[in-house]
Structure formats: C-alpha cells, structure tokens
Design goal:
Length: 292
C-alpha cells in the first residue's frame, strides 16, 4: 500500500500508476491545519488497526487523477529528521576528494557511520524547488545532492533491538538530503528551508517490501549522478533504526534518511533532479537561486 498526503494534507491511497483515493475519513482527529496535525503521528502509530478501514475506503472510493492534486511531503510535524552519515563505502571513499576540495583537508571523524539531525522545517513537497541560500552562494560554497532511502517510523521506541527494528517501521519513501559543503556543523549545512524534499508517498512496509533491495537512481538534468542498491548499505535498515533509538527515543512519524550513495555533486539554479526508488516512486525537485 502507498500512502500519500495531498492538497490540504488529506490522506490518500495510491491505487494505480496515476490515481489515488481520498481515505481521510478513516483517520481519527483529522484537521487540515498542518501545524496541529497530531493525527498524522496517530496514524503512523496505529496504522495496523486503521488499515482495514483505509483499505475498505480505498477499494470503494472515487478515484482521483494524481496529476490533478498537489502532493505533499508524506510527513507532518515529525519530532525529528534523523540522518545517517557515511553509510556507503564508495561514498566514504569519494568524500576524501570532496573534502580536500571544499574544506582543504579531510575530517577523519566524518568518515565513520553515525546519525545527526536535520530540522523538520527543511521538508519540501514533491515537485517543488530547492532554494540555494544567498549567503551560501555568496560565500562560494558548493551545495550537493544526496538521494536517499528514507525510513518512516511507525511505532516508536527506545533502545530497539536489531531483531525487532522492522516492527517499528511504517514504511519507506524517497528523500533528498541537500547539503552545503563547508566547515559548519552538519545540522546547519543540511537544515536550510527546502533542503529535505520528500516523497512522492510512503510505501508501507509488508512482507513484499525488502529493505535490503531498493535501487536508488538520481538524475540531474537527465544525467545519472547516483545509482545504488540498499544491499550496499554499511549499516542496514534494522541496524540504523536500532542505533538511532539507542541515542534518542523514536516517535511515530519520525524520518530517518539512510545515507548518501556515491556520486554526490553540486546542484545549480535551473537544475532538474529526478530521484527514482524501486517499489516507491519518482521524486522530483527543481533548483532556484535564493534572494538576498
Ligand atoms: Mn545524507
């Protein structure tokens, strides 16, 4: 099942390549005020019990053309966006050259797997534009694309063991972890508004979804920049969830970016980014020059 948010943050089930059904009536406490939309966290936590009613409405409801709606990032007020660093060995390898060029030295501590935070306010809807901050451009820093599998947390938890970690995953979506290459802290370099395009929807985890076998393909202006399979992750999805939950309590609806594949590189105003993840879908983003 694929869950989408659309228009005034209504809940949809994607029922074909180009249609969805509005299943908002299955959600307790719905409001179209995104700022107070605790119903989303409730949905992520209680999806198992809400699923039969969602399926019933999806099977019988009016089908709506996806190209007639505005898709939203499939997340509302997540308590945090967690992101994994240094989680594909070929990316770790390439970062030596990237850091020599952009920092003038190699930061050894940044070459080890770990997790960090991105501001939830950096989320951007599918098909909207990444805005390159004026101050960053003025300073001459590169801004890079990182095209990643994103985990959506269902049932939260603390110190979740690896062998039970997948029980805490609602599903998966695609995300772009847009990143300034500069000496600043990761949380600032990756938290500017629009620096976390997300979507186009969540593929709900079930027995048919194998987190060790997603292919992630990113093109910029139709040229392949990143192409990887999640079988190459250094720390796999259960390992990431378990480790993150050993640092901070995971809450329903939290997002975890799983790490940049090799092939990171600069984006420029006018670029068109297309991220494809097998079994999920196609996330697009444009790039704009920010104003002073
Ligand atoms: Mn990243």
């Amino acid at each position: 099942m694929k869950l989408a948010l659309f228009n005034t943050y209504r809940l949809g089930v994607v029922v074909s390549d180009d249609e969805l059904v509005d299943v908002t009536d299955a959600v307790p406490g719905y409001t179209d005020d995104a700022l107070i939309a605790g119903w989303w966290r409730g949905l992520c936590r209680d999806f198992g019990s809400l699923k039969p009613e969602i399926e019933r409405i999806a099977a019988n409801g009016e089908r709506i053309a996806i190209d007639s709606v505005t898709l939203r990032a499939p997340a509302l007020n997540p308590s945090k966006i967690i992101a994994a660093a240094s989680n594909y060995s070929a990316h770790v390898e390439e970062m030596h050259g990237v850091q020599e060029r952009t920092l003038g030295k190699v930061e050894k501590w940044m070459m080890d797997f770990d997790v960090f935070l991105k501001a939830p306010s950096s989320l951007a809807d599918p098909g909207t534009d990444i805005v390159l901050p004026f101050s960053v451009r003025q300073a001459g820093h590169e801004v890079h694309h990182e095209s990643e599998l994103v985990i959506v947390i269902g049932q939260g938890g603390t110190s979740i063991p690896v062998e039970r970690a997948l029980d805490h995953v609602l599903g998966y979506t695609a995300g772009l972890d847009i990143t300034v290459r500069s000496p600043a802290d990761r949380s600032r370099r990756k938290s500017y508004d629009t620096f976390s395009p997300l979507g186009p929807w969540i593929t709900v985890a079930d027995e048919s979804v194998d987190p060790t076998d997603f292919t992630i393909l990113l093109t910029v202006n139709d040229i392949v920049r990143q192409n990887v399979n999640t079988s190459d992750l250094i720390i796999d999805v259960p390992g990431i969830v378990s480790y993150a939950s050993s640092v901070m309590t995971l809450l329903p609806g939290d997002l975890i970016f799983t790490g940049a594949p090799p092939g990171v590189g600069p984006i420029e105003p006018g670029d068109q980014l297309d991220s494809y993840i097998s079994g999920i879908g196609h996330l697009t983003a444009g790039v704009l020059e920010g104003q002073e």
